[in-house]
Amino acid sequence: MKRILAIACVLVAASALVVFGTGADDGGGTYRVRAIFMNAFSVIPGEDVKVAGVKVGKIESLDVTPDHRAAVVLRIDRPGFDDFRRDAECQIRPQSLIGEKFVECTPTQPRPEGAQPAPKLARIERGPGKGQDLLPVSQTSKPVDLDLVNNTLRLPYRERLAIILNELGTGVAGRGDDLRQAIRNADPALKETDKVLKILADQNRVLANLARDGDRILAPLSRDRSQVADFVSQANNVAQATAERSSDLELNIAKLPAFLRELKPTMQRLGGLADQMTPVLADLHDQAPSINRFVEQLGPFATAGTPALQSLGDTADVAGPALVKSKPIIEQTGQLASTAKPVVNNLADLTTSLRDTGGIEQLMDWIYYQVAAINGYDEDGHYLRAGLLLNQCSAYSITFAAACSAKFAPTESTQASVRAASSGDKGYVDDPRRSDSLRELDAYMHGVKLDLGNGQQAASGSAAASGSAGSGTEEAGSTAASGSAPTGSAPSAPAPTGSAPQAALLDYLLGGGG
């Protein structure tokens, strides 16, 4: 049993060793190429890596080599493109007008069928980029951007460029190799020219023989023009060779009528378009000078807009994650808008109805007249009844006070007034400092007739007890004018109805309570 357990432990350990040993090579099978560039300006991680226009990976990271060159780590994710050879080439190209870049690579150069492929890239064994394939700087390039070329045409850069060209000999004296490398990396076409010149240099003897033999051949041709004419006659052989492919030519001719039938409607529409475009082209010809001026002035505008486009690129880098993070909020806002749509429609109908029917104005009129109806007034106009309350309940407090309440409660003065009215005691005290209207209203509420002519009080008659406040005022005015008190018995005032809190509320609204 122990032996079986030991064998099982050994097998498990071996399996773990195989798994971890094979999986720690390149991050789970992802192929990485460490491409060295002379310059990687405006290249950022996350940009595309393309092969023949097909996206095969991303730029994983950027680094600086000890000799001050740019190391761009290319992560190749797409299967079938993870075999870069030593003749591979990569170059940085612009992807859009806002300054984005991408890296386009050729994993290996085309070769004749049956030829041996180039060796694989060297693997970095230690140091920065360990485990990555190294693509040297000689196999990379970065073309000069068009906007940088246009910048050299502006002042003062144009003058500075002239100074550099004038002093170029002195500045690069003794550094011809560096200058050659910089010029070659500046334009991939120059690198291809170097390849062509290398091929020609390898075939210099053949070219020398070609030049010598060419002179030898051209001399007889110039002398024997008739033979040149015979060469034209021998072109019949070429026609005969073409006749050998007659079946293919016959198939092309057989397909030609169908092609022409399908082409005819297109050409008719094209003719109609040309007829309709004739006035437009005529107007365009008349506006050609203005268009020329526009194009000429577009150059300075484009130059001035270059920093804005570069800033727009930086803004896009910052705003991209923010927009991604705001996606849940936008979705919730959309759900809220969908849910609130019926409520908003009903609210729109309500507000439209209030606007069309004058509901708001009628509501304001009702508030105005209601306030005017319950307000007091005197000979000067309406006034607002208000009282300044200063007691222990006036101060701000965060704890509940048992003695303070927001309800109308019967106070001692109110209860005394009610008892006095019930027993026939008027309990009224005249205050000459108040207005005549207030004095009359207060006297009426206590069942007392007030003579404003001489300031004396008299017991109210039946007319004062049963009449309205307006009739009591008129009667008081007539009494004051005649100077005599009304005759007849003075019945006691009716006792106030309702509970004590209701009486206190009426006293507050109508100015009673003494």
* Amount of beta strand: 5-15%
Percentage of helical residues?
55-70%
Low-confidence stretches: 1-8, 10-28, 454-499
The major sheet is characterized as: 9 strands, mixed
Number of distinct helices: 18
What is the SS-derived class?
Answer: alpha+beta
User: How far is the first residue's CA from the last residue's CA?
Assistant: 111 Å
Mean pLDDT: 74
Strand order of the largest sheet: 7-8-1-4-3-2-6-5-9
Radius of gyration over all CA atoms, rounded: 53 Å
Shape: elongated
Number of strands: 13
What layout of secondary structure does this protein have?
Elements: H1 2-23, E1 31-37, E2 48-51, E3 54-64, E4 70-76, E5 89-94, E6 101-106, E7 122-123, E8 133-135, E9 140-141, H2 146-151, H3 157-166, H4 168-171, H5 176-186, H6 188-202, H7 204-223, H8 225-233, H9 235-243, H10 246-286, H11 288-325, H12 327-357, H13 359-374, E10 376-378, E11 381-383, H14 412-423, H15 436-445, E12 448-450, E13 457-459, H16 462-466, H17 469-482, H18 500-510
Parallel strand pairs: 1-8, 2-6, 5-9
Antiparallel strand pairs: 1-4, 2-3, 3-4, 5-6, 7-8, 10-11, 12-13
Helix pairs in contact: 5-6, 15-17
